[in-house]
Amino acid sequence: MATTPKKSAAKTAAASNEASFVKELADILDQAGLAELEYETEAVAIRLSRVTTAAPVAAAVPVAAAPVAAAAPAAIVEPVAELAANPADHPGAVKSPMVGTVYTAPEPDAPAFITEGATVTAGQTLFIVEAMKVMNPITAPKAGTVVKIFVQNAQPIEFGEALVIIE
How far is it, in rounded angstroms, from Cα 9 to Cα 83? Predict the structure, then answer.
């Protein structure tokens, strides 16, 4: 009977330590502004993730134009509204394959790899994503024209975040 209280006390202490460790991980997640945090050893695997809700995006409102040019503005407004909804769902979206820091140029003083309106070829380097001190090139999956760039140089990015739209 003497061993039962010891086991119970040991279990309570272990549970308390585990709970405080998970709390510490949650604090790290909040302080670092991360969306997800994983911790794994041979004995335990913990994955914490933050549920985020996107802020509502105002839709573009077409402005009445002169009767002669009415067709041209309507054609331009529709793709912009389509991009504003959720860029990652766009069929031409190039998404980040990892969490890291995106760089738009090979060096700080060098020109950007791409600009809006530029034509790119399949396999062309669009960005570099630094993750854990490793530079990972992000290449164009197809040839096309750069419609919209969603990131700026040295910006932190999340997995699956739209970086650019190529059509």
Answer: 57
Q: In this structure, are 102 and 156 located in the same domain?
A: yes
Helices (H) and strands (E) in the chain, counts: 2, 10
Task: Classify 84 as helix, strand or coil.
Answer: helix
**Could you tell me which residues come within 8 angstroms of residue 59 by beta carbon, excluding any fewer than 6 positions away?**
81, 84, 85
**What range defines the domain where residue 23 resides?**
3-49
Over residues 24-71, the pLDDT tens digits come to: 877 876 777 777 777 777 777 777 776 654 445 455 555 555 555 544
- Measured CA to CA, the distance from residue 112 to residue 125 in angstroms comes to 10
| φ, ψ dihedrals at 104, nearest 5° | -90, -5
Q: Count up the domains in the chain and report the number.
A: 2
Element (H, E) at 148: strand 144-149
Report whether 128 contacts 110 (CB < 8 A).
no
Query: 14: which strand partners?
Result: none
Alpha carbons 56 and 53: distance in angstroms, whole number = 9
